[in-house]
Amino acid sequence: MSQVRERNQSAWLMASDGSRIQPGLREGMRRFDDDEVDLVIVGCGAGGSTLLQRMARAGAKVVALDAGPFWEPETDWVSDEAGSHGLYWTEPREIGGDDPVPLGSNNSGRGVGGSMIHYAGYTPRFHPSDFSTRADDGVGADWPIEYADLKHYYEQIEGELPVSGENWPWGDPHSYPYGPHPVSGNGEVFQRGALACGITAKVGPVAITSGRFGNRPHCIYRGFCLQGCKVNAKASPLITHIPDALAHGAEVRPDSMVTRIEVDQRTGLATGVHYVRGGVARFQRAAMVAVAGYSIETPRLLLNSTSARFPNGLCNDFDQVGRYLMVQGAPQTAGRFDGEVRMWKGPPPEVSSEDFYETDPTKPYKRGFSIQTVSPLPIAWAEHVMAQGHWGADLRNYMSDYVHWACLGALCEFLPQPENRVTLAAEKDRHGTPIARFDYTQCDNDKALMGAATGVMEDILKSAGADEVITINRYAHLVGGARMALTETEGVVDADCRSFAVPNLLITDGSVLPTQGSANPALTIMAVAARAADRLTAHSHIDKDT
User: Fold this and answer.
1) Does residue 247 contact residue 9 with C-beta atoms inside 8 Å?
2) Are residues 235 and 157 in contact, defined by beta-carbon separation less than 8 angstroms?
3) Is the pLDDT of residue 219 over 70?
4) Which of 9, 106, 343, 487 is the most buried (most CB within 10 A)?
């Protein structure tokens, strides 16, 4: 723990009861007032906040702009599904393709902390195989880095969140800083069914404290992880990296919608960002710009940043911006049991298996899927039931039976395809900026994975004693859209997250991931951003006079 505190004091910069950032830290943070800074970061989620904290520690004058509010968990978050709708990005977007992806609560964040405010807290690593799927399996893409390049950063971030879980046997076997959480009814169902099916299941990994960590309290198993953890046991950048960044001189500027990146037409370098705050158009000057708006807003911002040098959008000389955007197939299968399960008691992802993660040469599809417990609260559960066509009295009967259901979810590795992309729509938002259009179509391999995962989940639940199973097909986790690659004809940024076209422009969010594995992406996004910060400070002069 002392090693964590030496590089990131955030957990000790919370109030003594863990309810909020220490009084005065936010109010007294340094303010640059649009003066030129060393680095301006667009977006304050997983990638942006990690980069902010690392660069502030390195002595950089750095400010992060976020379109949403600077949340106060004690007063802003509620134990209520409907009352938590403000956590999501609900600005207008268009969707299309043969298999359109709904955008909203489970894949879009709004405010400081980003989507990690309302993620489930599940933080597995990518496997070594994820970095070479083209070479090994003939599908997807090869990363310009290897697993070994991220391993050190995985370990760092796991300590800073921190992550709780059993020893992990899959991918690169490893342990976690904290032991596993106790298992509730939903997890017990998974363990019982998995054992009967000969499937290995483990508890964790979740970025939720199973014990006190600094001034943060342990989990109280209230079951509202997806609504923002009001007790601050679940990790999000708002409490894991922002406090330390502020203590080291960074500024977080909320309610600031960035509309365009400015590039000097003579030098070809980025000079800052245009943004709107309080209805007033402003400009933040910076020696470097980093974009961390995630896989819809990052391509949208680049495409809207046109100029004589970049008529088709910034960094888009080879039509790569917005392409290869991926989601994970995330079917959920529920089973009914005679005894009460009360699946909402505890973290939604408690028990999981990666037995099906890698390519199985005996199967007709490439790559694989993971399975974990999920615990939809009543509104989400009603959506699950209604998807089966149940309405009226039928729906009421299912809802009154809620305590008897257990639910599992899969994450299927859908493959990157060039036509699954973000472009600009004709419609404009309230700032007069063209909105994003996201087109998505599944390939045959995607569909086969979804079917295989559903079959395994049904087998697990039936083997555990379920007398009825129902499935809803859905999506989760957006990545890609500005991927890293070896050359500018294949991607937007290099292995260090620097754009090929603009030397002082970085992208440090999930949009740079070339593949997505069957793992939730938050941990990998933070690890990639932490590595990018190290690479940046190693090759740049940072003015220490802050």
Assistant:
1) yes
2) no
3) yes
4) 343
What does DSSP assign to residue 284? E
> Quick one: which of 478, 222, 147, 33 has its CA closest to 230?
222
CA distance 313 to 433: 13
**CA 290 – CA 264 distance, rounded (Å):** 16
In this structure, the number of other CB atoms found within 10 A of the CB of residue 196 comes to 14
Decide the pairing of beta strands 434-439 and 94-96: parallel
> Rounded distance, CA 475 to CA 106, Å?
8
- C-alpha dihedral, 471 to 474 to 476 to 482, nearest 10°: 150
Structure-token pair, residue 36: 């030129």
d(CA 121, CA 236): 8
Cis before residue 162, ω within 30 degrees of 0?
yes
**Residue pair 89/43 in contact by the 8 Å Cβ criterion:** no
Q: What does the alpha-carbon distance between residue 516 and residue 488 come to, in Å, rounded to a whole number? A: 20
| CA dihedral sign, ordered 364, 369, 372, 374 | negative
Inform me whether the pLDDT recorded for 67 exceeds 50.
yes
Q: Which two tokens stand for residue 200?
A: 């290995």
What local confidence, expressed as pLDDT, does residue 540 receive? 67
pLDDT tens, 161-191?
A: 999 999 999 999 999 999 999 999 999 999 9
Contact assessment for residue 453 and residue 311, using Cβ atoms and an 8 Å cutoff: no
Q: What would the two tokens of residue 328 be?
A: 């994970």
DSSP state of 3: H
- Distance CA(106)–CA(483), nearest Å, equals 22
What does DSSP say about strands 37-42 and 405-412: parallel, antiparallel, or unpaired? unpaired
> Can you tell me the distance from the alpha carbon of 148 to that of 168, in angstroms, rounded to the nearest whole number?
17
Closest to 289 (Cα-Cα) out of 513, 499, 28: 499
Say which range, 60-69, 174-183, 222-231, 374-383, has the weakest mean pLDDT.
222-231
What secondary structure does DSSP assign to 162-203, as a single string? Answer: T-B-SPB-SSS-B--SBPPPPP-HHHHHHHHHHHHHT---EE
Q: Which secondary-structure segment (H or E) carries 137?
A: helix 133-137
Residue with tokens 């080879």: 318
pTM over 0.85: yes
Residue by residue, what is the 3-state secondary structure of 300-324? Answer: HHHHHCCCCCCCCCCCCCCCCCCCC
* 3 state SS of 53: helix
Alpha carbon separation from 221 to 22, 178, 284, 344 (Å, rounded) = 24, 16, 42, 9
- In this structure, the strands spanning 37-42 and 62-65 are parallel
- Taking only the tens place, the pLDDT of each residue in 498-533 is 999 999 999 999 999 999 999 999 999 999 999 999
Residue 351: strand pairing partners: 203
Beta strand residue intervals within 315-382, DSSP E: 326-329, 332-336, 351-353, 369-373
Provide the 3-class DSSP secondary structure of residue 217: coil
